[in-house]
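Let's sit down with a protein and look at its sequence and fold side by side. We need material for that, and I hope you will provide a protein of your own picking. Once you have written the record down, we can walk along the chain together.

***
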Amino acid sequence: MEAVVIVGGMLACMAAVVALVVVAAVLGRRRERDRRDALHRWAATHGWTLVPNPAVDWSARLPGRNRRGVTLALTGALWGRRASVADYSYTETTSTTTSDGQGGTTHGTQSTTHHYTVLVVHLDRPSPYLGIQPRGTLSRWGRALFGTGTALGHEQFDKQFQVVGEPGASPYPLSPHLLAAHVAGAVPAWTLQGTDLLAAVPGRLRDPDTIPQQIGPLYRVADLLTGRVPAGAPPLPGAVPAAGPAPFPGAAPVPGLPSSAGPLPGPAAGPATGSGPAGGSVPGPDPVPRIPPGEWRPS
């Protein structure tokens, strides 16, 4: 009788666990459906396009390098350029070893899926691979001990960051304003290949209304690379502007954007530069003054 009770209790526990797993899966699918519906509504309201499983080559520059990891991309005009915001994920599998309680071990695997929001600003002119990334621990140690690494004449930048790729072959100079913005923490680490200026932040895009705030700092990088002058930008090692214009009517200003950028109208927005997964290049004028002489350009 006691054995029957024990078996019955175990079966009840297993049934409860299965029920919880099923409920969690149903709720997860519902949340994902609601999230995608919100993205579709946002895109329709602002004249953007939502493309499932876009044909893009960004994965080589993303953690995990999952070629099928970009499952959704929003593309449209913002502040006079074309931009894309995408879902990306990759799964990491690790081996595990646990004790079986009897002097032996049990081997297995554990999988963890990592989600990122990919931010892309599409520039006019293509460039070879180029980027600014934080220095890793070994790079910092090597530079401290042996003075190795790329030196751009900006001490704080050289300590914290490194230039990757082919700066000498790129049409985009790395200006003192850009280096100072990295030191101030005002812009993200980024890479550029072709016309796609890219950064990635951990986590999925939950609220599409945060797109301007999330991609705003990368627009600052684009402006500094292409020579647009942030209003009131100070010399090195100055800070960035406190706030820029509202991206859409009624939206809050976005911190860190130059005040020379104009707001984006609704779906009937004017010409925007660059290209994206949803369409081809759209030329547009660039009346913004260039950065004066004195920027750093690799020799």
In short: The longest helix spans residues 2-46.
